[in-house]
Each structure stands twice: as structure tokens, then as C-alpha cells.
Amino acid sequence: MSYSSWISKFHTCVFVVFSFVICAQSDVPRPRGVSLSKASLYPPDKDFTCFDGTITIPFSYVNDDYCDCFDGSDEPGTSACLNGVFHCANAGHRPQNIPSSRVNDGVCDCCDGTDEYTTPDACRNICEELGREARAEAQRLAELHKAGSQVRIELIEKGNRKRSDMAEQLAQLEKDKADAEKIKAEKESLKSELEAKENEALKVYREAEEEERQKKAEEERQTHMKEATEHFERFDSNNDGVLTKDEIQVVNVFDKDKDGQVDEEEFKYFLNDHESVDKETFITTTWPLLKPLMMMEQGMFKPAEDPAEDHELEHDPEEEIDDVGKEIDEELDTDDEHGDTELPSDDIEDHDEPQQAQTYDDETQKLVEEASEARRQLTDAERTVREIESNIRNIKENLEKDYGLNQEFATLDGECFEYEDKEYVYKICLFQKVTQKSKNGGSEIGLGNWGEWAGDENNKYSAMKYTNGVSCWNGPSRSTTVQIQCGLETQLLSVTEPFRCEYRMELSTPAACDDTHTHQQSSHDEL
Ligand code: MAN
């Protein structure tokens, strides 16, 4: 039924009784507050059965200002039932259903004023006016959607092209990756081959160094033994091959804390918790503890060379002993660490470049350089593979994004738009993130990263959700909902913070324009 004929029919309605309306031309008499579509549920010549089927009452009970039905269906035109529904026809504008509790409550809810029928003068019928405005707005929107849809078509074309470009790039990158992996494998085997030759050539240098190291270690061991033995014999005053408390008590150097006597604690420390030590234990256990003290007494170890500190005598002797102990430990340490400092290790993987300080014969030098070059080339090849993989990941991520049913939002990915209010500059980079920057300085605050489409069931593309922004003080992470509407240009129209740290943006874009959608809406609204 067209809009105009609907109005003319409605205008022929006459009010017959308190609660009943007969619409002559429409031939659909119905109780007050009942919509045309529900009129058949109220046949005046029969008893009325509540919509929920629970009770049947005489028809005269309908709209008698007493609530009989649990579902409120017997009182559509009075406020007797809390859950009743009053229908206003609102001829000239949109029909409306309001809770019947608002009937005759002194407030004009329906534009035709029918909800306040006991005081007919209280509410002016403004439906024609509102309808005109609504139709003008609908017309404006329809034109906007129409014009925007043209731009949208271009966006769709570009979006589809972008997607197919991405798909092509992906295919190319997969090929590049296969090639790069092949090169990497070649470089790997070249590197192994050249390193094997390098290792072979360096073997002779390593062996020489190892020999040298062992020789040095042996010399150091001998010196240590000699020194320790000499001191043991000096302290073992009765020459019985055992050093007792009596014997060390008289030797000042055992007075570790320098309190003038060698006490129980010091015996314990030097004799390793025993009453005495034999020569062997002295060499392995006592001497490493004693030697640093002796060296310090002889002025062989000094704290850090700060001239200002030369006059200060308040060194912590414990610390010095620890440091000296470390040096001694290192001196005595004969493990492998020493061996690797001058030559490339056998395990070239761990030492990317052999140390160049060492001079080799020409042949070896050439092999070292060739192996170094092979290592460099492998590193480059590995980097290339990693870069391609990262590009593949990015493209795949974008290809998986939902850019609308027709790819109309695809070209907007990464496009940024700003909005300023009194305090902040807001920025949205679509499908990426939302930020907020105070105009008084300070750093940018993340208001959310692209999450998902969040429109209602009619159109999921009518809202976007950006989540996991910077945490709100004592609260959740910041998040932003972007309401999307049709507009000839893509731009941010407003930004608000309806709840603390929950932001709401309005964005217009031609991508959201759809003329068919608008027409459907108009007809649903029964203007
Ligand atoms: C900042 C801004 C505001 C937010 C408060 C919450 O000042 O991000 O938008 O409401 O922090 O503490």
C-alpha cells in the first residue's frame, strides 16, 4: 500500500466507543492501540483469547482498563497492563509501538497524539511535520548513498585489484623463497666445505698453541708446587710432615683478620676444618688461600689505582683477598679456556670469524679468508630468506583480513585519519590502530589495535572494534568502537569517551554507501 493511500484511509477512521476505533474504508475495525497487522486477532464478534493462549474473555473486556491477560494483550489501548503494547498509527510518519503504560500519562509519545486520548488537546498531531522532515532526511540519505555508491564501486575495483596484486605478490614471494632457500643451502654446503679446509689448515696452528698452553700450564703447576712445598716446609717447624695449629699460630700471615692472633676461625679456614694438614692438603687447599694474603702483605696486589685512594687505608681486606683469590685461581686454572684465545676454534659455528691477529702462512691465510667470505655469504643468504618470510607473513595476514563483502574496505587498510577535540588529537590508522595524544605534550597512548568487525546482525560492517590498547589506570585496556556510516569522503566525524577508556568514533566513508540498503529501509519504515 502506498504512503498516500494509507493516510487517506486512516483519516476516515471514527472513534465509536471509549476504546474502539472503526476505520471505515480500510474495513478493519480494531480496538484502540492495535496495529493493522494485529487487527485480525481481535474479532469483535467473538470472545478474545489472550495472545499467550492462557485465558479467553468476553470481547467487551478488551480495553476495559482492567488487565486480564498475563501478556497484556487484552489492554493495548489502556495503561492497565504493565507489559501491554500500544500501537500508534502516526499517519504521515512512522508507526510506532510504545509500552501501554505510557498511555494517558500526560506525555506525548506518539506524534499523532493518540496515546493521550483522554486529553485530546494536550498533544498536537505533528506526524505530517515529522514525516516531512523524515522523508527529506531519507531523501538526503538516499542521494548520499547513491552518490557514495559510485565512489564505492571504484573502491571495490581498487580493493579487488589490491587483493589480486597481493595474491600475485604472495605467489612471487613463495617462488623467491624457494630460490633463496636453494641459495642458502648452496652457501651452507660451500661454507662447510671451506671451513673443513680451513680447520685442516689451522690444525697445525692449534696443535702448536695447545702444546704451548700445556707447557705453560705445567710450568705454572710446577711453580705452584714448588712455592707451596717451600712454604709448607718453612711452617712445619718440627719437620714431621704435618702442619698443626701450634705451628701456624706463630705465623703472622695466618692472622687473616689482622687482630694480632691466629684464632679458631682462622684455623678452621686454613686447615679446612681439621686439626692439621699434611703437605698434599696444604698444597691443594691451604696454599691457594694463603698465597693471596702473602702477596698482599708483600705489596704485590693493590686495589684499583686511584691516586686519591692511596692514602686511604680502609680497604676491605676480604674483598681484596677475594680478588686475589680469583687471580690465583685463574693462574692455576689449566682448563681449555686458555687454548682458544688465539686461534679459531674447531667449532667455527661459535666463532664466526677467526681472529685475524694471528699470522698464518699464505696458503692458510687464503683458506681462512675464503671460509670467512663463505660465512658472510651464508649470513646474507639467511637474511634474505628471513626477509622474504616476513613479507610473506605480512601479505598473508592482510589477505586473511575481512575487507567487506566486496573488498570495498581493502584500500583503506593503513590509511590514517585524525580528529582534534579541545584536549586531544586522535588518530585512527584503519585496520591497524587507534591513538590519542594530549595537546599538552606527552607520548601517544594506544587506544586499541585492529580487532574485528562489530556491527549488528543486519550489517556487521557498520562498526569496527579496536582492542588491547594501553591499560587504563586501575582499569581495563583501552578500546575503541568505530561506527561507520556512508559519506562521500573517508573522514573521522567525531570522537567521544562515553565510558572511561572506552572510546567511540564516528567515521564516514563511501565504502559504507549502499543505495539498495537505503531503499529497503524506507519501505520497512512504512512512511
Ligand atoms: C588519559 C586519557 C583519557 C582517559 C584517562 C584515564 O588521561 O587516556 O582519555 O580517560 O587517561 O585515566
TrEMBL record:
It holds the Pfam family PRKCSH_1. InterPro entries: EF-hand-dom_pair, EF_Hand_1_Ca_BS, EF_hand_dom, Gtb1-like, LDL_receptor-like_sf, Man6P_isomerase_rcpt-bd_dom_sf, MRH_dom, PRKCSH. Residues 1-26 form the signal peptide. Residues 414-515 form the MRH domain. Residues 363-382 have a biased composition (Basic and acidic residues). The keyword Disulfide bond applies. Keywords: Calcium, Coiled coil, Disulfide bond, Endoplasmic reticulum, Signal. Residues 127-228 form a coiled coil. Residues 249-277 form the EF-hand domain. GO terms for molecular function: calcium ion binding. GO terms for biological process: N-glycan processing. Residues 333-352 have a biased composition (Acidic residues). One of its GO terms (cellular component) is glucosidase II complex. Residues 333-382 are annotated as: Disordered. This is Glucosidase 2 subunit beta.
